[in-house]
Amino acid sequence: MAEEPLAKKVRTDEGRKNSYEEKPGQEFLHVSNMFNDDWNTDGSAATILFCLKEGVGALAKALKIFEDGNVNLLHIESRPSKWYKGYYEFIVEPERQCGVLGPCIKTLQKEARDVRIHTRDHKDNIAGKFADTVPWFPRKISDLDRVTTKVLSCGAELVSDHPGFSDQVYRARRKEFADIAFEYKHKQPIPRVTYTDEETKTWGTIFRELTTLYPTHACREYNHIFPLLIDNCGYREDNVPQLQDVSDFLHDCTGFTLRPAAGLLSSRDFLAGLAFRVFHSTQYIRHPSQPLYTPEPDVCHELLGHAPLFADRRFALFSQEIGLASLGAPDDYIDKLATLYWFTVEFGMCRQQGELKAYGAGLLSSFGELQYCLSDVPEMRPFEPAKTAVQPYPITKYQPVYYVAEAFSDATEKLSAFAQTIPRPFSVRYNAYTQSIEIIDNKFKIQELASNIKAEMMTLMDSLTKLK
C-alpha cells in the first residue's frame, strides 16, 4: 500500500486553482541534463512537475532532495498519472527567492521520470541555462483571457501619423472599445455596441463600394456565404453587425468564434487563438476622414474581410492548422507562420475554373486593392509554404506579389507538411469536446490517438458499407 500522501493532494492552499494546468505567462519545457548547476528562479515564478513510481517513502525521498538543496517549497500537489501505470504525478512550487535549483533538478531526474519545469522566460536557453526550451502556449480556450491583454499597438493609444491622432473624441471612443476587450472573459457574451451615425456612415460607405466587386472578384465560397450573413447577422449598408451575432453564426457553421481585441496582438498570441478556432476581432471603426483606408485592422476589415470565410469548413480547417503549427514553435518559425498567414488569410488568391479570385481578408476589405490584385500589375506565384514563408512584404502599400492556392484543401495539405518541419519535441491535437490542446509526446498518448482514429475509421467503413 502506498503512503497516504500519494493517494491524495499533499497540500492545496485555499483558493488556489489546480496547478497542473500550465499558467499563462509561463513557459513549458522538458528538462535535459544540459543546463547550468547554478540555475535558480531569479525571483520569477517557476513550478516543477515529475512522476514517481508508487511506493512507501517515494515522496519523502524526492522532497528530501529539495530540503538538502535548501529549497523551500510553497506548494505540493499530487494525482494518479494518466499516462504511467503505477505512477503519481507531482507538482511543487519553490519559493521565488530560494536556494540553487540546478543540482536539485539533476538529482531529481535520477529518482523520477518525466521531469518538467515551467518558467517565465523561454529565452533562458540563450543564456545557456537550458539546452531546449519551448515557449508557453495556451492549453485551454480560457487561457486566451490572458494573452488578449497584451496589445502591441493601436489600442486606446494612437501613433502620431494615425488619421485620428488629433481627434480627442475619436480617441476617447477608441478607449471605450479597448476597455470592452480588456474586460472580456471567455464564455461571456460579447457586449453589444451602439454605433454612432458617423460610424454607421463609414461602415456604409465601405459596404456599398465592396459589395459591387464581390460577385466578380471574390472567391466562390465567399459569395456563397455573404448572403447568409445578410440574412442572419444584419449585414446591411445602414447597420454595423454585432460581433456576438456573427460569432454565433460562425460557431453554428464551423465552430469558429470571435472574441474582442483592443488592437494588434503579437503574432504568437494571435495565431494561438486560431488553434482553438478563435479569431481576435477589433470592434472599433476607422476614422471617418478616410473611410477607404485604415492603418490597422478595424471592425470593417474583420467582418467584411475575415468573418465570412470562417464559415467555410475547408477554410476554417486551414486557418486552424496555422494556429496549431504555431503552438510551442521557435521564434523564427513564428515569423515564418506569420508570413504564411499574411500571404494566405490576409492576401491570398486562388484559382477557380481557370480564373483568379481573392480570398484574403486584406483584399476583400479593400476597395482599391481588390481591383488591383486582379490587374496585370502584381506578380502571381504558386503557394509553396517553404518559399512563401520567407518572402518579404510591404505593409503600407499594395502587394507586389500574391500567392495562388489551387484549393483550400490543397493549401491545408501543404501547410500540414510544412508544420512537420517545425522543431518541437511533441505534436499537438485540438480536442473540440474539451476545447483544449492535447500534447502528443509519449507512446501512451500515441496509443490513445490511434484508438480514436480507429473508432473514426470504423464509422467511415460502416458508412461506406451502407452506401453500397
Please, could you describe this protein's structure?
There is one protein chain. The chain has 468 residues and is α+β, with helices and mostly antiparallel strands. The chain has helices spanning 58-68, 102-111, 144-147, 168-183, 197-211, 214-217, 220-233, 243-254, 267-275, 299-306, 313-326, 331-346, 361-364, 367-372, 385-388, 408-419, 443-467; strands at residues 27-30, 46-53, 73-80, 87-94, 113-119, 151-153, 257-260, 264-265, 278-281, 349-352, 355-358, 379-382, 401-405, 427-431, 436-440. Strands 1-5-2-4-3 form a five-stranded antiparallel β-sheet, with helices on one face. Strands 11-10-13-12 form a four-stranded mixed β-sheet.
Find the count of extended strands (DSSP E, 2+ residues).
Answer: 15
Query: What is the rounded Rg?
Result: 25 Å
Helix content: 25-40%
Number of helices: 17
End-to-end C-alpha gap: 56 Å
**Order of adjacent strands in the largest pleated sheet:** 1-5-2-4-3
**Molecular shape:** globular
Q: pLDDT under 50 segments (min length 5)?
A: 1-39, 124-131
Q: Which strand-content bin applies to the residues?
A: 15-25%
Overall structural class, as computed from helix and strand content, comes to: alpha+beta
Largest sheet: 5 strands, antiparallel
Mean pLDDT: 83
